[in-house]
Structures are given as C-alpha cells and as structure tokens.
From TrEMBL:
Name of the protein this chain belongs to: Lysine N-acyltransferase MbtK
Organism per entry: Streptomyces anandii
Keyword Cell membrane tagged: no
InterPro entries associated with the record: Acyl_CoA_acyltransferase, Acyltransferase_MbtK/IucB-like, GNAT_dom
A Pfam family it matches: Acetyltransf_8
Region span, Disordered: 1-74
Keyword terms of this UniProt record: Acyltransferase, Antibiotic resistance, Transferase
Feature: compositional bias, Low complexity: 1-51, 63-74
PANTHER family xref list: LYSINE N-ACYLTRANSFERASE C17G9.06C-RELATED (PTHR31438)
Domain N-acetyltransferase, residue spans: 135-300
Composition bias, Pro residues: 52-62
Length: 305
C-alpha cells in the first residue's frame, strides 16, 4: 500500500489507504514519527500512511505526507523476506472468513458483499458534521475520479511519500488493485461541503502485512490520507478530518476497537496532526521503505483524547 504521509497521504494503499505544511511541503502520511519534544503545528501538515521511545533528534522536513506503505513480515527467514513485498490485496483471507461469506473472495459475485462484510459498507456511512464543514467519504469510481487523484499524486509533496507520480495509468493500477480486490481496502474521495479535496484509503489493518509489525487485534482499521490541494493544507483540515473519519469508523464499525495509522517518522507535521486528532503514539516500526510511527485511536479513549 502507499504510505499514509502524502500531502496528507495517511498510509499506503493496497500495496496493503496527506496533510502538508503551510508551504509547499510534503503531504501528510499515516506513518509519522513519535511526538517530538518541540511540537510541530498540525496545521502545517497534509494528511496521507514505531519501538516505543522519543523520535530521533535533528531537524524534521516540513510538510507531512501520509505514507501508504504496506507492512512486511518480521521473521528473519528467506520466506519472511519475500513476504515483505506482499501487498495487502495479495494476502489470503482465513478459511473461517471464506466460510462465513459463503463464496470465495475476489469473485465478481462476491466483491460487493465482501466489501460490506470487511468494512461495513463505507459508501453508506453518509456525511458527518465537522468543525470545518460537512464531510463525506465517497468510494472511488475510476471513470469519475482518476483524473483528480492522479493530479494530486503528481504533486511533489505527495509523490515523495506515495510514490505514484507519473501518467494516469500509474494511479489507475493502484486504485484498481483495491477496487478489484476482496474489499479489505477501499479507496475514497473526501468531499468537504460537496467539493472533492482529499483522498483516503480505509483498510483492514488486521488483514494487512502491517499486522505482522504490531500486536494487531481483530477488526483494527487503518487509515491513509492525503490532502489534495495546496490551498487546503496548513489550515488545520488534516487533524479535523482525521478525527472525523476515526469517529466514523468507530461509529459505523461496532466490532472495531481501534483505528490505526503508520505515518513516516520524518513527517513530523503528520504525526502532530494525528496526535491532535486524538491518536496516541504507540511505537516505532520498520516498514518497507520507511520507519513509521504507529498511531492508534482507541474506542475506549475517544472521548478523552
């Protein structure tokens, strides 16, 4: 999956799915560093995808991008090394999932049902009121959304973390991998007051390679985010929308007790945005292509943080 740090790119999409600073800094990614001693304003970070302890000393590049990079295995074996390159959509669902669904996942007849079973029908979650306006997640449709998502991915601040710059076919391949999968990762457009302004990936972290890197629990749900327009970055939108989406996940998915993200540790603004949104820093974790901050929002703490 791409990382969660792009222009607010909060996590990597099915490669397992971004706020920037007030300048044309990198987008937010969900795999950011642990809270630093000198806090960075979340308003300067775009949203997009840790061993416990303080983040490394030294200056941090401005402007976060949520990095959507998929997590790899921890076993120190040849097989584990190969598994590090596994994408979320390449993992096989457990037999009990297949039995419960009644059809092998990935078939045309079962995709719509699988998506609802695994993430409880994101398209039906509806709008939510936030301090910055009415917000809604709308599952991506290639014919409608590819041009705008590809444009966002070619923003240098976003591309640094998501690594999807190039012709539209690059972004299309990334999106189709999720749309043609079994529903464990759903790419979405974020509409603020009816206007497309962000890209999100909502995914089952417990079915993602990320689950090999931390003590995952059933139905843990991951978030990757990127704020598309430079004019929407550095205004506090990232933290406000992250909190709203985390609340949507917890409200619409009763079985989910935690929302997780893994922003790049280098993306201090992104980590700050997650902290402001009610996430807590859990640990530093090594993921393919980045060292990430494991950020968690607990259902039990949602009214306290």
């Amino acid at each position: 999956m791409p990382p969660t740090d792009a222009g607010a790119a909060t996590g990597h999409a099915p490669a397992a799915p971004a706020l920037t600073t007030e300048t044309a800094a990198p987008a937010l990614a969900t795999g950011t560093a642990a809270p630093a001693a000198d806090p960075v304003s979340p308003d300067s970070v775009p949203v997009g995808p840790v061993s416990a302890g303080p983040p490394p000393a030294g200056p941090v590049p401005a402007g976060p991008v949520l990095d959507p990079v998929p997590a790899g295995p921890v076993e120190d074996t040849a097989e584990a090394t190969a598994a590090d390159s596994e994408d979320t959509l390449d993992l096989r669902l457990p037999e009990d999932f297949v039995a419960a669904f009644g059809q092998p996942p990935g078939t045309d007849a079962s995709r719509a049902d699988d998506a609802d079973d695994l993430l409880d029908g994101i398209g039906d979650w509806g709008p939510t009121v936030t301090p910055v306006g009415a917000f809604r997640l709308l599952p991506v449709r290639i014919e409608r959304d590819l041009p705008v998502v590809s444009r966002w991915m070619n923003d240098p601040a976003v591309a640094e973390f998501w690594q999807l710059a190039g012709p539209q076919s690059v972004t299309e391949t990334h999106l189709r991998a999720q749309l043609d999968g079994d529903g464990r990762s759903v790419p979405c457009i974020g509409l603020l007051d009816g206007t497309p302004m962000s890209y999100w990936e909502i995914y089952r972290a417990d079915l993602d390679p990320l689950a090999r890197r931390y003590p995952a629990r059933p139905h843990d749900t991951g978030v990757h985010l990127l704020i598309g327009s430079v004019t929407d970055r550095g205004r506090g939108l990232g933290s406000a929308l992250l909190r709203a989406v985390a609340d949507l996940v917890l409200d619409r998915r009763p079985a989910c007790a935690r929302v997780v993200a893994e922003p790049d540790l280098r993306n201090a603004p992104s980590v700050a945005a997650f902290l402001t949104a009610g996430f807590r820093f859990s640990a530093e974790i090594e993921l393919p292509g980045k060292r990430a901050a494991l950020m968690i929002r607990d259902r039990s703490l949602r009214h306290l943080l």
